[in-house]
Design goal:
Layout: E1 6-10, H1 28-39, E2 43-47, H2 49-52, H3 56-64, E3 70-74, H4 80-93, E4 98-102, H5 104-108, H6 110-114, E5 123-125, H7 130-138, H8 143-146, E6 152-156, E7 159-162, E8 197-200, E9 203-205, H9 215-218, E10 223-225, H10 228-242, E11 246-249, H11 258-271, E12 276-281, H12 283-288, H13 293-299, E13 301-306, H14 313-318, H15 325-337, E14 341-348, H16 355-368, E15 372-377, H17 385-390, H18 416-439, H19 444-458, H20 461-469, H21 474-481, H22 484-487
Parallel strand pairs: 1-2, 1-3, 3-4, 4-5, 8-11, 11-12, 12-13, 13-14, 14-15
Antiparallel strand pairs: 5-6, 6-7, 9-10
């Protein structure tokens, strides 16, 4: 067994502007993995370079003063280049260290990674990482046993070796957490004053089969839920121990089982904690839960993201969304009716996209009238089913730009620049009238929440950068967006 060894978990220093608009989100995965490292007898440290906004030079300075035998990071597709770069920095600072990476992108793109002779990644943990990491660290000093770690991939003489996979953990509540590894003063939700932002998972996975999605493939189209009492105990403990008063439920699909979900709501209502909760779910579950939507609010849920994705049925069917346009419209109406903030997204840039189809999408988005809408560029994850369908139209191969913000698919009848401009134009036209709408709201909390959120979105770096890149003056555009005469 390894003793007195150190593992350093580091977040890639990637920024695209969207995820970070509303707050600094804690790296929940490292909380679970850090607990497994400790269980294996190792010391663990989490260095959240992304939240700290440390660039690569600053990361190297941190590594110079850190002790680590294993350097661990994680990656989705757009963060992967930066994840590789920080592994390279770790090797430069500590040539004897072992580098390991997990996450969605490495899980599916292991051949590409391990076949690169210049790649500084020693090992990949594929899929659900907690139990494999424990095995890896527990037997680290025995190279033969280490190399028998389930879910492990590594290269021998330039050829990938792929170990058998463990079944997904049947009891998510058995997985321990190491919350003390996080520096909680870093995490806040900008929309709410004096907030400490936490993230918990009440379930993992999704059984649906949306063709563009990475999560349903990562979890093998399965869903597993935690016990309601354990979820609420964790919320209560984080509130009492760390002062967390805003919680992001990170699940892809927390509401999957109606009875379980209602029990979570009931237990939260019983605790009556002064907290706010943000969730994501599917539109059909909001419709299903119409009778208990008052419980959502009483439990503390204030903000619900639902994936409308498209405003025409043909596109919804094409991406196998398994909902109807009327479902999306009705879900957004219900969220407004029961006093919750609604957020959704609309995807642009399919190969057959035209200015006319974008205008139809925009007009429908205005008709749906969510509180917040995101106009995203369809992104072909290299491992998603959708990739093969559109690969002949992919014009950009820099993974850093696979972030739903930068167009990477060139439509037959439009240029990438035209799609870029269309995204900006949709944001501008959608949010300008929202200022007046939000200023007329009587509920002080809702009014402040919406106005603050909207200003964060419209002043975010990703929009400013787009304005500048497209030859627009960011200051002039913003002044028009927030013209008090337009806002009433």
């Amino acid at each position: 067994m390894a003793e007195n060894k150190n593992i350093l978990f580091v977040t890639p220093p990637y920024h695209c502007g969207v995820v970070e608009v509303a707050g600094n989100w804690p790296p929940l995965g490292f909380v679970y993995l850090g607990a497994q490292a400790r269980k294996a007898g190792w010391d663990a440290e989490v260095y959240d370079a992304m939240t700290l906004r440390h660039n690569h030079d600053r990361i190297i300075r941190h590594l110079d003063n850190a002790e680590f035998d294993v350097f661990a990071t994680t990656a989705i597709t757009p963060t992967f280049p930066d994840a590789v770069e920080i592994c390279r920095s770790a090797k430069r600072v500590n040539p004897s260290c072992t580098t390991i990476i997990g996450g969605v992108h490495p899980t599916f793109c292991y051949t590409e990674i391990l076949s690169d002779p210049d790649c500084p990644v020693d090992y990949i943990i594929m899929g659900e990482g907690e139990l494999p990491l424990y095995h890896f660290l527990r037997h680290f000093d025995n190279i033969d046993r280490r190399h028998r770690t389930p879910n492990l991939a590594y290269a021998v003489d330039g050829l990938p070796v792929i170990n058998p996979r463990l079944p997904l953990c049947a009891d998510l509540d058995s997985l321990e957490t190491a919350w003390d590894l996080l520096d909680w003063k870093l995490y806040t939700y900008y929309v709410i004053d004096d907030s400490v932002l936490g993230a918990i998972s009440t379930s993992r996975g999704c059984s649906h089969q949306c063709t563009f999605c990475s999560q349903q493939k990562f979890w093998n189209q399965t869903w597993r839920g935690r016990r309601p009492d354990k979820v609420v105990e964790e919320v209560s403990r984080l509130y009492n121990d760390y002062g967390i008063n805003v919680f992001l439920f990170t699940d892809e699909y927390p509401t999957y089982e109606r009875e379980r979900w209602e029990r979570i709501l009931d237990l939260l209502i019983e605790r009556d904690l002064p907290i706010h909760i943000l969730i994501e779910t599917r539109v059909e579950d909001i419709i299903r839960d119409e009778a208990i939507l008052p419980k959502y609010r009483r439990a503390g849920i204030i903000h619900v993201y639902v994936g409308a994705e498209a405003t025409d049925q043909e596109t919804l069917d094409r991406i196998n969304k398994e909902i109807t346009v009327s479902d999306s419209r009705r879900a957004i109406e219900l969220l407004a009716q029961y006093g919750m903030i609604s957020e959704t997204s609309f995807v642009l840039g399919f190969p057959e996209e035209t200015p006319e189809s974008i205008e139809r999408t925009f007009q429908a988005a205005r008709e749906f009238n969510p509180d917040f809408a995101h106009f995203l560029a369809i992104t072909p994850w290299p491992y998603a089913e959708f990739y093969n369908e559109v690969k002949d139209h992919i014009a950009v191969h820099d993974y850093r730009l696979y972030n739903l913000i930068e167009p990477v698919i060139k439509p037959v009848k439009m240029t990438l620049r035209q799609i870029d401009r269309a995204i900006i134009d949709c944001y501008r036209r959608f949010y300008m009238p929202k200022m007046l709408e939000f200023r007329k709201i009587e509920d002080p909390f809702r009014k402040n929440y919406l106005l603050t959120s909207m200003k964060l979105i419209m002043k975010s770096s990703f929009l400013r950068d787009k304005f500048a890149r497209l030859g627009l003056n960011p200051k002039t555009v913003m002044e028009k967006m927030f013209d008090k005469r337009r806002a009433g």
